[in-house]
Amino acid sequence: MIILQLHPDDNVALAIRELPAGHVIHTADRSLSILQTIPAGHKLAVRAIGRGELALKYGQPIGRATSDISAGEHAHVHNIESLRGRGDLKTDPSGFGNPKGLGRRSSGDPSNLQPPTSNFPWPEPGRRQSPIRHWSGYRRKDGRVGVRNHVLVLSTVQCANAVVDRIGRALPQVIALSHAWGCSQIGDDLAQTRRVLEEFAAHPNVAAALLIGLGCETMPTVEMGEQLAAAGVLTRRLTIQELGGSRRTCEAGLSVAKELLQEVSAARREPIPLSELIVGLECGGSDAWSGVTANPAVGVASDLIVAAGGTVILSETPEFIGAEHLFAPAPDGRAGRAIDPEVGRQIVAAVQRREADAYRMGVDLRGAQPTPGNIAGGLTTIEEKSLGAIEKGGASPVMQFLPYAHRPTRRGLVVMDTPGNDAESVTGMVAGGAQVVVFTTGRGSPLGCPIAPVIKVASNSAMFRSMAGDLDLDAGAVIEQGESLADVGRRIFDQIIAAANGQQTAAETWGSNEFAINVIGPRM
Do the strands 134-139 and 398-402 form a parallel or antiparallel pair, or are they unpaired? Predict the structure, then answer.
């Protein structure tokens, strides 16, 4: 196999390896001459595509040709453009996804298209039975279960960061978490920051929390500590101004943290049903193989968790743009991929709000999606990236749509409204209760989380070999070794259970602990 055509209707295919100009590919029904060098993972036209014609991958539109593209020609950003997020235009000439309904509708309107089918060996949708029914975790007072037994030293305001960081350096057994917020925020932003901080302090992966504030910040540190303690969280609180400065607070903080470490050391793991596991899904530094290997393999693992009664969180709303029609209710009112029409409408509305931001700001969404690294890896448009990204959710129905950093109230596959920024998205899912995160990458990303293990899945074997210290699994074996997506998905599932049982991930071993809270509006 030299090229990979994912759907019989596709007019583009992926180069499995670099194809030099002049190379001739012979198939059962034709010969295709390569007109220019095609990098591995990039697309080539398998038939002539006229200017203005839709480019199709996964049987879905991923953009429109900006010039005539000959069969065998490189198909990428120089001759295909996205149809979405063109706030730099007075009207959206494509009519795709225009939140104001400007412009004309195209005959390629994705709302008229059906979910993709493929001649590539995707795992069959439907019922998948998990071979494992239990894992081993720490039962907390609120009934939730953690996969780690951390003591968290948490800054409630950026002014306390230096103290928190010093405690972390002096006592590496604790998780020292500092951040940029906690003051000069108002309204929804202040409420969201508080919710994220409280959810991290009360997270089941955290056995005890020490809050450190300044004393004059907007964030109500004292009230937070009291509420967490009232909810049964083992919590202590220190305030720099009350204790007479940073040095004294650091000394007191070290003493308290040591006491908390001693107190939580008695906790023991116990058998836990798989139904009490929540797994967050993320992709970052994607390439053209992400939607072919790593993401659909994660989808297999997701379905195994859901089949056992567990919960999976699919995130990154901006990376649904161009694929949201697959979640939308059918014209006759029946639910699509969502469990009911209302959940589908919520997902579509959230995507439209994200895209409307580009129109309101007068910017071209393509300046950020796909990213330069995505483009270098072979992704051309946000539609192409989105169609591959949603593969992480497997074939399970979407049970619920969640605001940022909110806990699921239903089990199964749920969608959380997070930004595409990896650190902000992972932070939101962990604040929502995810005990483990699975993160696919095609370009290589070492990102982790302070309190939750992040499992890194490489989409291609070459990158896995070059960044082996940052990655846990190689889904590129689907292409390089012919391993089935079902088998790679099972390996990912096994890695999730191993991480839940205490096995360290590459991100934990290296110490990757990125933390960022999504910003909603203005700061004062």
Answer: unpaired
Residue 414 and residue 421 in contact, taking contact as beta carbons nearer than 8 Å? no
What letter represents residue 298's amino acid? Answer: V
Amino acid 69 reads I
Q: How many CB atoms lie within 10 A of CB 180?
A: 14
Beta-bridge partners for 138? 146
| DSSP symbols for 31-54 | EEE--S-B-TT-EEESS-B-TTPE
Q: What is the DSSP letter of 308?
A: T
- The SS3 assignment for 436 reads strand
What pLDDT does residue 520 have?
87
Q: What is the pTM of this model?
A: 0.90
Torsion over CA of 29, 34, 38 and 44, rounded to 10 degrees? -50
How many Cα atoms are found within 13 Å in the side-chain-facing hemisphere of 67? 9
Q: Which two tokens stand for residue 339?
A: 């469990």
Cα–Cα dist 27/516, whole Å: 49
Helix 294-307 × helix 485-500 angle, to 10° = 60
**Dist. CA 235–CA 289, nearest whole Å:** 45
Instruction: Burial-class residue 51 by CB neighbours within 10 Å (0-12, 13-18, 19+).
Output: exposed
CA geometry: angle 412, 415, 420, nearest 5 deg:
140
Q: Cβ(445)–Cβ(456) under 8 Å?
A: yes
Which segments of 46-105 are extended strands (E)? 54-57, 60-65, 74-75, 80-81
Closest CA to 448 of 479, 427, 474, 418: 427
Gap between the Cα atoms of 40 and 381, Å rounded: 17
* pLDDT, tens only, 468-483: 999 999 999 999 999 9
Q: What pairs with residue 32 in β-bridges?
A: 25
Q: How big is the CA angle at 129 (ends 456 and 300), to the nearest 5 degrees?
A: 30
